[in-house]
Amino acid sequence: MTKQVEKVDRVIIRFAGDSGDGMQLTGDRFTSETAAFGNDLSTLPDFPAEIRAPAGTLPGVSAFQLHFADHDILTPGDAPDVLVAMNPAALKANLKDVPRGGTIIVNTDEFTPRALAKVGYAADPLEDGSLDGYKVHKVALTAQTVKVLEGYDISRKDAERAKNMYSLGLLSWLYHRPTEATVAFLEKKFAKKPEIAAANVAAFRAGWNYGETTEDFVVSYEIAPAPMPKGTYRNIHGNLALAYGLIAAGHQSGLPLFLGAYPITPASDILHELSKHKNHGVRTFQAEDEIAGIGAALGASFGGALGVTTTSGPGIALKGETIGLAVSLELPLVICDIQRGGPSTGLPTKTEQSDLLLAMFGRNGEAPVPIVAPRSPADCFDAALEAARIAVTYRTPVFLLSDGYLANGSEPWRIPDVADLPVIAPDFAAGPNKVLEDGSEVFWPFLRDPRTLARPWAVPGTPGLEHRIGGIEKQDGTGNISYDPANHDLMVRTRAAKIAGIDVPDLEVDDPSGAAKVLVLGWGSTYGPIQAACRRVRREGNPVAHAHLRHLNPFPANLGRILKEYDRVLVPEMNLGQLSMLVRARYLVDAVGYNQVRGLPFKAAELAGVITNLIGTDAVEGVGV
């Protein structure tokens, strides 16, 4: 039988199953194959908060969505063209997102009466006609995998587990993905269990062969590689990019990198990754709690290292006092907040942008802290370098606000030339810096650089640079304890002026026509959906501008002027309006918020509708505030 090959420019695939079905691994391997092929891609892993949610239930569904194309893309896609559903729960949880006419591949072995009843199906959806509007492929994935592995010395349970590799092989055939890397990955992953490795490779190849020989799949699809600037690329997750950025910051500053952290979702992968890189001067400390983690990091900074702590929102609440101490001590510290849904424990595995005001104001006293936010998984690398530059140059703690969407999502990353990375100069104090009236030379720990207002960074043990530290207010210059009201006023204003005066690049505006009257202002991980939405709106003939903030404190110097150049400003956020509140207060601009807190990123089509509505009406109709 000769099978048809159809060329398409893009496709969105979602793997979904029980949290024990290996959907994250399957999606990750398909992503790696796609990256190796040269497509542009974007991913969205989605998994339960529980380590092992009840099998076959809706709360236990784990999914992985991948959007790949022969052109530049910005998001994991609004809706899957293909859904691979390993059980009834996966089908029910994800069917609402699949457009009519979409393809559904189901594992029929799991559609038992008990499994159907567990998720509330009164009848089998594979037989009752409810899926007639879709292209449904019924595949006995479990049974076929077990049959293929009958000759292997493994248990039936291990054989059934390999069904995710069978499905990966089938999808790899369907979309002409390279397979060599997956085979090598499986052989390496199970090197100590060669029979398990061989069984998984056999299941993977059997899935490929099934696609090649079955009459159920008569069409396969080709998506050409995407044109990209010349360079060496790799697929990278946001947390991995952030870890590499911190390592690069250590190299570029000549400082040992110290991470003090307590494990917390979705930040833990940074600790795991950095612990592998002792050869790069990285030291990691898994503390007993959040407070100990940041305390150790601040101590490392005092000792002359680049101190870093990683956490999520609940951890920031615990670290607040020590962040204030770092503000008072005026020492470099990078605080990576990988935001998640809140409040309290909230939604540990879901994304949100709700910590902006916490980062801005969540400390006692006047304790301003710079804030940097990456816009994509790969951009986490550059954001980490920028956070470290600010921290070291200005002697201040710096917030890096990533989130779960960026942390777990991935995209191609062009590996930079080390020669192109910024140099970060710690400029340690080397000796006395003040001549007294009697001609003697002394060291003043709070004598400031006239350009940056940063104080000297004196490494403990340097002769003649002994000085007192602590959280009590210091006297200007000398650093002695001071309760003088005028001195306190001066120190508070000086620390604020130091942060306000940080040198950050001007904000760039994407306004191709120059005729836009509506500006969409965003920050962080909303970049992809906003930019994709703006592209859709422009294709329909409606001009719209987009500006995206990396620096949230201080704001770029030209932000106020830009905001006043547009009739309307729309601020989409995954919170209830935190940036729009800051913009309205600072610039007296009637910014309109479009807000959601669903634990999921915006959909481009949704935002495009909001933008079009705002462009086409005098009143702000249909915009959720």
From TrEMBL:
Keyword Membrane found: no
UniProt entry keywords in alphabetical sequence: Oxidoreductase
Residues of the Pyruvate flavodoxin/ferredoxin oxidoreductase pyrimidine binding domain: 258-471
Pyruvate/ketoisovalerate oxidoreductase catalytic domain segment(s): 20-207
Transmembrane segments: none
Domain Pyruvate:ferredoxin oxidoreductase core: 516-585
Protein name: 2-oxoacid:acceptor oxidoreductase subunit alpha
Top-level division of the source organism's lineage: Bacteria
Alphabetized Gene3D superfamilies for the sequence: 3.40.50.920, 3.40.50.970, Pyruvate-ferredoxin oxidoreductase, PFOR, domain III
NCBIfam families: OAFO_sf
Native source species: Catenulispora yoronensis
InterPro entries for the chain: 2-oxoacid/accept_OxRdtase_asu, PFOR_II, Pyruvate:ferred/Flavod_OxRd, Pyrv/ketoisovalerate_OxRed_cat, Pyrv_Fd/Flavodoxin_OxRdtase_N, Pyrv_flavodox_OxRed_cen, THDP-binding, Transketo_C/PFOR_II
